[in-house]
């Protein structure tokens, strides 16, 4: 008992499972009394999500805070100095159904001189914040259900193959702006960003 007490007395809890952690930046640009959000079209040669629309950001490295990761990735992808990024604050983080946690931050971009890193970014574009405030996304319901392999040990479970395994439904959102489709985790984050603005 003493050994267990020693282990747990000052222990801080964490998520159970192997989560991929990343951080992104909601970059705001102010031009002619209008606020815009900057988006990236991912490079077409990338292995993961080529051509998708995303926010600047990426994986959190060892010993790095989520905010440090968001700033570093934004610097690298947009080829800008971190002095040009004025972090305003943090947004609600997003836990995906696919074992990843995304930490979004809100920042003001203080330069218009952007030359994206072509290894990661095909090009950038901006969308007026007003567009998201005035237009709700298209919503489609998605169902996630377990898929068992042939060797799954049903005999170890009460009810066997008839066991009522949990299923989960969640909404997939789509914003269509001109020729761009903003969807997936990016749309989830932007939708929540807009909700926070509307609530206050």
UniProtKB/TrEMBL annotation:
Which keywords fit this entry according to its UniProt record? Hydrolase, Magnesium, Manganese, Metal-binding
**Matching Pfam families:** NUDIX
Check the record and name the InterPro entries matching this protein. CoAse, NUDIX_hydrolase-like_dom_sf, NUDIX_hydrolase_CS, NUDIX_hydrolase_dom
Superkingdom of the source species: Bacteria
Transcription regulation found in the keyword field = no
Q: Where is the Nudix hydrolase domain?
A: 19-150
Q: Which GO terms describe its molecular function?
A: coenzyme A diphosphatase activity; metal ion binding
Q: Which cofactors must be present for this protein to function?
A: Mn(2+); Mg(2+)
Q: Which PANTHER family match?
A: MITOCHONDRIAL COENZYME A DIPHOSPHATASE NUDT8 (PTHR12992:SF11), NUDIX HYDROLASE (PTHR12992)
Its recorded name reads Putative nudix hydrolase NudL
Per the UniProt entry, what species is this protein from, by scientific name?
Clostridium colicanis DSM 13634
- Designated gene of the protein: nudL
């Amino acid at each position: 008992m003493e050994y267990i007490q020693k282990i747990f007395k000052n222990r801080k809890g964490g998520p159970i499972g192997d989560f991929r952690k990343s951080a992104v930046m909601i970059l705001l640009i102010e031009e002619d009394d209008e606020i815009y959000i900057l988006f990236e079209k991912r490079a077409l040669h990338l292995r993961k999500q080529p051509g998708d629309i995303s926010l600047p950001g990426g994986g959190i490295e060892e010993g790095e805070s989520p905010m440090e990761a968001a700033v570093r990735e934004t610097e690298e992808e947009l080829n800008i100095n971190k002095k040009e990024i004025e972090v305003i604050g943090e947004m609600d983080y997003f836990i995906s159904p696919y074992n990843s946690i995304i930490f979004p931050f809100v920042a003001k971009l203080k330069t218009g001189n952007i030359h994206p890193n072509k290894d990661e970014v095909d090009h950038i574009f901006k969308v007026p914040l007003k567009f998201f405030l005035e237009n709700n996304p298209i919503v489609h319901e998605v169902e996630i259900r377990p898929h068992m392999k042939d060797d799954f040990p049903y005999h170890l479970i009460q009810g066997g193959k008839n066991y009522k395994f949990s299923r989960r439904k969640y909404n997939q959102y789509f914003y269509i702006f001109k020729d761009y489709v903003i969807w997936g985790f990016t749309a989830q984050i932007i939708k929540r960003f807009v909700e926070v603005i509307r609530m206050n």
